[in-house]
Amino acid sequence: MSANGQPAPLLRLEGINTYYGQMHILQDVNLEVREGELVCLLGGNASGKSTTLKTILGIVEPRTGAVILDGRDVTRDSTAKRIERGLAIVPENRRLFGPMTVLENLELGAYLRPRADLQEDLERVYSIFPLLYERRKQLAGTLSGGEQQMVAMGRALMARPKLLLMDEPSMGLAPVLVERSFEVIQEVHRAGVAMLVVEQNANVSLSIADRGYVLSTGRVVLEGKASELLTHDELRKAYLGR
Angle, nearest 10°, between helix axes 118-128 and 145-157? Predict the structure, then answer.
């Protein structure tokens, strides 16, 4: 816990300015995810959401500002070191290994962990997603979109992350499956995992989040409790960037 009684921040972005060449993409971005929180990062196309994720992961290095992970400045650390310190990601479109079984995909998520812990990690994932135990011998590429989302999340959880990043979890899912996908996110959150969910679907994301941030053309234009953002008069204007 921090000095003010709030859960300690697992992730802080402090004054982040990220460029691609001469293009100033992220402009003085400040963002925080605390222990046990589910935070959503909203924005339309070209708002800077993907660059924010890449900056958190170390794929892109900010020109100025700091990335603080679990109390340590990791701004100049590699992606691998950040993952070792507790980051995990469920990438856009899930990116499973289709010709491999569900079990083999899950095992890949534990490649940095001791083999002796593998069974315990699998049992934890199966307790959250019982369907994956039933499907463990099935090829991942033959699963439905919603089932693949479970595998992608299970694979990330195998690393026992302190913070789970999710990139556009509703991307590529039929509308009927989007609601189920966010129910799965809630199940993982209830299991005690802090999460940062990057999404375009504002209504669904805010309905399950603790707090939210809204990006527009590389700036945070709104932030606050999710319940307050849902009813904010300026949300639509800020979210659409106009």
Answer: 140
